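Appendix C: a fully annotated inverse folding record. The material below is reproduced so that readers can follow the format used throughout the book. The structure is listed first as tokens, followed by the designed sequence.
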């Protein structure tokens, strides 16, 4: 009797009916080869990969398992004519006769990784030759799916090569790190690729070259893999032989070590363990990679959805990766206290000596860093994103001035003068709906400038983008790209001001057609390819496509006004800057919006927008202008953060403690801003989405001066206007809807009013409180 358990072909269990059909094919055509058989089976059962190709290799692997178990009798293996590898006799010329190459990395630039598209190409021959001569494992064989690259310097020629191929079938330490079951590994293994070859030629001795090349390869590998195989991998693994290599370049490229192999290879079926032990290193493109790789295990176990959080603080902070449950509860308590009194100092917000001391201990704890605290909010933000078709991910930088706290440590200069203001820099990416409602933070970067680097601005042109402060824009875009992969049915658009006019950012945005789009305001009048002149004159000479009125918000002493714009657009091919000639020309869409008849004391609006979104008509150009207009939302958020939460008045002694407190304040500021916007977007929903029962009843009683609250809660709009009234909002005909400023002022008063009302109701009128009242808000 043949045991067929765990035999799958292309992820499907093989039953007796399928086996009978396969054996029937073999019996009907005795001359059928194994290749022809696998192709016929794939065609009949429609087994295709995501790129549409027949899954013949997987099919042959499954057939071989059935053959070895006696379930079928495969045809004899047909002799296969040997095919020699193509080599290149011109390799040594390409390497300049193996001349020694040393010095600094910038002297080799531009360095590029070149994908090999065909095994019959000249590049494939060069790659094989290099590996056979210089790599201790030789050129192959490489297993399964694969993408190979050559490394080249335009100045020095070939520098080495890389290969990424199918992952190891079963590795105990790797699988335990991921959290895989045996079934989960079989179903998700194709999400891992193996960096099976990496070679820098021995005569090339340039510090940081190897990690730089790894970075270049990893940035393009996912899109190259998708182009060839129809999907993007999630994880890269590599194995480093202990005693032969240190693996320094991998660690510099953000690989992490997860354990050791057991000395077995792919063909060690008898468990002889005759190979050297190797260290296992992995690189994940996303912080959620392990959860994604385990999703089929979770589905198989029928895991019920996590119970809905009791309140907003638990929704935004409850899943923080803090091992001590007490610290997680303390985090939520601090968040609720700061939200109740957003402008108060820590002791005033905490309301007791014990809670104040606990808060300071929390800020000083080594496991409560900014990134850890914001991770659950980031995931909650992504859950809100999937509810929208288009979401704008707006980036902006602001400075936090702590000059008034000279005792604070680890701060840096934030002004243009060496002895000027001291503090921290904060670069945020906030997700907005097209209605302008803030959905949450996708990326936060906070740092202090090194005072020793002050005055070296003139050297920046000779640095790689990764070594510049402007890399913050690319780093944030990568986080938006990660969110895009988790929200494939939502189009994410990264939006930036003139500081984001960075050629490397444009290139990054165009690498992946399925990635997020980019929309930035142009700072430079860039050259066009093929000698076509400059961007600004080209677009300015286009005919007017449309006119549009745009409401310009108040800025400083300038009142709000209605701007009348003329709109032009064009498709442009940008030429790379002179110092970045190694980069390719880039196709972008340019939109010019110019204000007509502006007031004499106001500088007219003149926006040149560059975008990767298609712009083929006036409507699409107007749409992109309306998107960019929503960029002002992040400036409102930063004002809420500074003025509403008073973050620059926090006296915490060091940059680390400030960042921990800042992580909480940032979510509090988002929630206040979100409340203001949501009240305008969906004004008629019940206010219980944001307010607890005792809060809205106390609010209504206080404002209307009636002792008995209504049986039904007021609408969110009405409740917001009541809160804003506490903060000074008058509600006159021309006042519009309340903003974040009056809301945060009103929330401080509401906390005291609600506490007193609850005490009095508990003591003298318990019938006014529902038995099911929660002590936490129910809105996530």
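Designed amino acids, in order:
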């Amino acid at each position: 009797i043949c045991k067929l358990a765990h035999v799958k072909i292309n992820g499907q269990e093989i039953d007796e009916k399928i086996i009978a059909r396969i054996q029937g094919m073999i019996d009907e055509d005795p001359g059928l080869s194994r290749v022809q058989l696998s192709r016929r089976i794939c065609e009949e059962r429609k087994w295709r990969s995501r790129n549409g190709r027949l899954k013949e290799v997987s099919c042959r692997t499954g057939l071989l398992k059935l053959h070895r178990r006696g379930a079928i009798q495969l045809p004899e293996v047909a002799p296969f004519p040997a095919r020699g590898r193509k080599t290149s006799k011109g390799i040594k010329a390409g390497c300049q006769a193996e001349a020694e190459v040393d010095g600094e990395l910038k002297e080799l630039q531009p360095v590029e990784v070149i994908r090999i598209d065909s095994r019959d190409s000249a590049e494939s021959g060069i790659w094989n030759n290099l590996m056979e001569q210089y790599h201790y494992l030789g050129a192959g064989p490489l297993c399964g799916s694969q993408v190979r690259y050559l490394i080249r310097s335009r100045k020095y020629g070939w520098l080495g090569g890389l290969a990424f191929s199918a992952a190891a079938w079963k590795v105990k330490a790797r699988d335990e790190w991921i959290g895989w079951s045996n079934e989960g590994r079989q179903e998700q293994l194709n999400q891992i690729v193996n960096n099976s070859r990496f070679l820098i030629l021995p005569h090339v001795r340039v510090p940081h070259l190897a990690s730089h090349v790894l970075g270049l390869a990893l940035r393009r590998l996912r899109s190259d893999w998708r182009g060839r195989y129809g999907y993007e991998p999630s994880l890269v693994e590599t194995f480093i032989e202990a005693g032969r290599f240190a693996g320094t370049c991998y660690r510099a490229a953000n690989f992490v070590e997860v354990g050791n192999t057991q000395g077995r290879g792919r063909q060690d079926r008898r468990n002889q363990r005759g190979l050297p032990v190797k260290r296992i290193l992995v690189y994940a493109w996303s912080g959620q990679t392990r959860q994604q790789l385990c999703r089929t295990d979770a589905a198989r176990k029928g895991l019920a959805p996590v119970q809905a959080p009791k309140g907003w603080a638990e929704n935004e902070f409850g899943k923080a990766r803090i091992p001590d449950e007490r610290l997680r509860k303390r985090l939520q308590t601090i968040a609720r206290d700061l939200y109740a009194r957003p402008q108060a100092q820590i002791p005033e917000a905490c309301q007791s000596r014990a809670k104040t001391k606990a808060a300071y201990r929390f800020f000083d704890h080594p496991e409560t860093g900014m990134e850890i605290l914001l991770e659950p909010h980031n995931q909650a933000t992504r859950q809100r994103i999937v509810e929208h078709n288009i979401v704008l991910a707006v980036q902006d930088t602001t400075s936090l001035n702590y000059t008034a706290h000279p005792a604070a440590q680890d701060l840096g200069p934030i002004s243009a003068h060496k002895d000027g203001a001291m503090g921290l820099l904060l670069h945020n990416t906030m997700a907005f709906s097209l209605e302008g409602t803030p959905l949450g933070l996708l990326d936060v970067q906070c740092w202090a400038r090194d005072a020793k680097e002050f005055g070296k601005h003139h050297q920046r042109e000779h640095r790689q983008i990764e070594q510049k402060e402007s890399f913050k824009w690319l780093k944030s875009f990568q986080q938006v790209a990660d969110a895009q992969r988790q929200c494939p049915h939502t189009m994410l658009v990264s939006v930036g001001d003139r500081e984001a006019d960075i050629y490397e950012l444009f290139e990054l945005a165009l690498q992946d057609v399925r990635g997020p789009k980019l929309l930035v305001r142009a700072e430079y009048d860039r050259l066009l390819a093929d000698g076509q002149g400059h961007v600004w004159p080209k677009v300015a000479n286009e005919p007017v496509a449309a006119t549009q009125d745009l409401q310009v918000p108040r800025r400083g002493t300038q009142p709000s006004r209605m701007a009348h714009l003329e709109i032009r657009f064009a498709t442009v091919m940008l030429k790379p800057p002179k110092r970045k000639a190694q980069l390719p020309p880039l196709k972008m869409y340019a939109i010019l919006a110019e204000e007509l008849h502006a007031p004499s004391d106001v500088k007219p609006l003149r926006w040149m927008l560059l975008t990767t979104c298609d712009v083929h008509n006036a409507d699409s150009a107007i749409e992109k202008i309306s998107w960019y207009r929503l960029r002002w939302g992040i400036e409102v958020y930063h004002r809420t953060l500074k003025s509403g939460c008073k973050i620059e008045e926090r006296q915490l002694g060091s940059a680390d403690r400030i960042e921990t407190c800042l992580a909480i304040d940032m979510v509090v500021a988002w929630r206040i801003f979100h409340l203001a916007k949501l009240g305008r977007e969906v004004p008629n929903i019940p206010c219980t989405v944001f307010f607890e029962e005792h809060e809205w009843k106390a609010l209504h009683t206080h404002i209307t001066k009636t002792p008995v609250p209504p049986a039904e809660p007021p609408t969110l709009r009405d409740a917001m206007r009541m809160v804003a009234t506490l903060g000074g909002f008058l509600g006159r005909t021309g006042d519009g809807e309340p903003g974040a400023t009056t809301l945060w002022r009103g929330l401080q008063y509401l906390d005291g009013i609600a506490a007193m009302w609850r005490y009095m109701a508990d003591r003298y009128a318990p019938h006014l409180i529902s038995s099911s009242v929660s002590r936490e808000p129910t809105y996530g």
